[in-house]
Each structure stands twice: as structure tokens, then as C-alpha cells.
Amino acid sequence: MMMTIALPVAMQNLLSTTGSMVDTIMLGRLGETTVGAVGLCAQFTSLMFSGYWGFIGGGMLFIAQYWGAGNDDGIRKSYGIMLAFVSITAAVGTYLALFQPMWVMQLYTNSEPIQKIGVEYLRLVGISYPFQILAVAMAALLRSTERVRIPLAGAIAAVITNCVCNYILIFGKLGFPAMGVRGAACGTILSSIVNVLVIVVTAKACHVPYLLEISGHWKWDGALLKEFLKKSFPIIMNEVLIGVGNMLINIVLGHQAEQAIAATAVFRTLEGLVIGFFAGFSSAATVLVGKEVGAGNHEEAYSRGWRLVYSCQVIVLLVCLMVLALHEPILHAMGLSGESYRLAFSMFAIYTVLGTVRMGNWVQNDMYRSAGDSAFGSTLEICFMFLLVQPVIHLANGPLHWPFLVVFALCYVDEPIRYIIMQIHLYSMKWIKPVSEAGRRTIEEFRGKYGVRS
Question: Which pTM value belongs to this model?
Fold first, then answer.
């Protein structure tokens, strides 16, 4: 069951990351400064992702549990609420990219050549943001109802479009002018539109429920909205504040030498490869656990939960080791050499160890959310980010002037500590908090049987 959901999602994310790698490889021929500039623009995209992912996470919580309980009306309404809020986030991100690109670039770096290239890229790529966010929202609904092949089809079409358009537009093939970094932005716009069109057309052709039943999306009432926001608020705060925290980290990493900036941009692409593959298994944990909680099968939800956590961590470690084994051709293909090559390899070696722990925390947090406990992991992550990680990184980078790789490693200083706390919470079973009627009917019996305090 895990593989049925995880592999298509992992393949979808892998394709998307492969598209980013192809972008980086093509842009690498334009120089390390261009790679670094587009990499910093990707960090702004990640910040926007943090802004809307709280609503996506809240939507998946409700949709997965309503799916397990067979509540079709609840699925439609939850998707509508989620769609309304992510649209607002898309509008803000698009405005900043199109009309305030210099302000965005100045947040991340003080290098004028990198700022100039980044502004040129953002002014175009911002057009793709509404389509990207709509595709993510549709994919979240389809994944939560165990229809994962349709987003995969959209991703395949998008990656093919992106690669072909980038090759033509970046280098000026088939009679088109060589547009450089603007060509990469145009490729992203076209691929985002294709992704949405393929999902909509395929869903229509396959008569998939919920997604295109537009009238049902907007019939939610104040009671459901209040409960949605109550459950979503910790997730929203988690994603936004962690997004801000990561932005502050990226600002520190972006004010290094240009070789370090280029190495960071390539590392983020490789990290995206790992996260993309891992996200498939995290999505499987979200759906498989949330579905059982929603149906009232709490023992099965718990049993699936702890097994999925360790399975995901093993998979992440194997993927990291595979990338490490192939690092030489990958890093050279992305235009790195000398010091930037050495830094990128060292960063990924550090990530192989600490990133595996981080993914364990990630999957536990996602699983707790789908089971109805949206506050525990979120509160923990926020507190550690701002009370430990940020002070340590800024101290090491500022007054202490520690080497770049040490500063980078300290970005993960909280992960082992949080992992121990998350494990204790996992085996306490307190994270099972149903929102569906079917789940609520059996929760007290489950708690009484295992002595779980609510």
C-alpha cells in the first residue's frame, strides 16, 4: 500500500527535481554567477512554498480523514477552503516577483552581478507561480484520495516541456534568439501551464470525483472553516516561521564568496532530489495513517505510523549514498570545479548523515498532522529554529568567523535533539486526534485500552 502511493509521488517529485537539475546543467554553461543567481531565486520560491504549505497540510489532514470516513461532502469543502487560501499566497508571491524583484534579491545577497541576473529571472518566472501553486493544491487532493497517477502524468509532461523549451530558449535553437536566463524562466512558465492542463484534462477524462466539482468547493460554513483554521494554524505558523528561519539561513549562506554561493545552489538542487524522492513516502505516511484515523481504526494507524517512520529514513539514507557515489559526474555537469566543487561535495556528505535524521523528524511531523495532532511537531520545530539554530549560526558566522562548512553543519544542530523528543511522542500515541465522526466514535475506547491521556 505504501509503494502504491509513494512510488508515483516519488517519481513525480523526482521528475520535477530532474527538471531543476537540467536547468542548472544548462545554466552552468553560462557561468557560476548565473547558477548562483537562479539558485537564490529558488530560495524565494521555497519561502513562498512555506507560506502556502500550511494550508495544503491542513487540507490534506481533513481530506485524508474524510476519505477514510467516506465523507464526500467534507472532502469537497475542505479542498475549497484550501484552494481559497493558497490563491492568496500565490497572489502575494507573484506580486513580489514581478514588481519588487530587486528587493527580493537584496534580501539574499549583496553581490550586484548576482542581483542583476536574479531580477531578470524573477520578473518572468513570477508568472508561473499561480500555476505552480494550483498544481500543488490539485495534487494534494488527488494524493489524499489515493489517485496519485494523475499528478505523475502532469509532472512528466511538465518536465519534458521544461527541458525542451529551456534548450531552445536558453541557447537559441530552431531559429529562436538565445535568451539565456530569461529563456529558463519562459521554460518554467510554459511547463507550469502544461502541468495544470494535463491534470485537469486527465481528471475530466477519467471522471475523477471532487477535483472539478467546483460548486461543491464553496459550500463550506463557518463551523468547518473555524475547525479547519484551528487545525491548520499550527501548520501555517510552522511553515511560515520555518520558511523565514530558512530564509535567514540562506541569507547567511548567500553572503559568502561566489564559489560558496554556487556550491549552495547546486547542493539545494541535490537536496531537492532527495526530498523529492522522500516526499513520496512522507505522502504515503500522511494518507495511510490519516485514512485509518478517519475510519476509526486507531490501532492500525499507530502500527502503520512507527513502521513508516523507519522505512522512510532507510530510503532517504540509501538515496543519499547513491547520490554521493555519483557526485563527481553530477557536480561537474552542473558547472562546478575547484573550490566550489569541494564545498558542494562536503555539504552533501554532511547532509547524508544529518539530513537522514531531519527526514525522520519530517515524516513524523507530517504523520502527526494527518492524525489530527498539528501542534506538537510544529511547536517543537519553531522553538528549536529560533532558540537554538538561528543564534548558533549567526554566532558562528559573525563574531566567531568559523569556516563555511562548519556554519552549514550547524544548520542541522537541532535535528538529533528533536528526533529523540519526536520518538517519545510517537510511542505515547497521543498524536491520534480524529476530526471525522467515525474516528471520534472509537477514540475513547482506544485511549482507555492503552492508557493514553487525551
Answer: 0.76
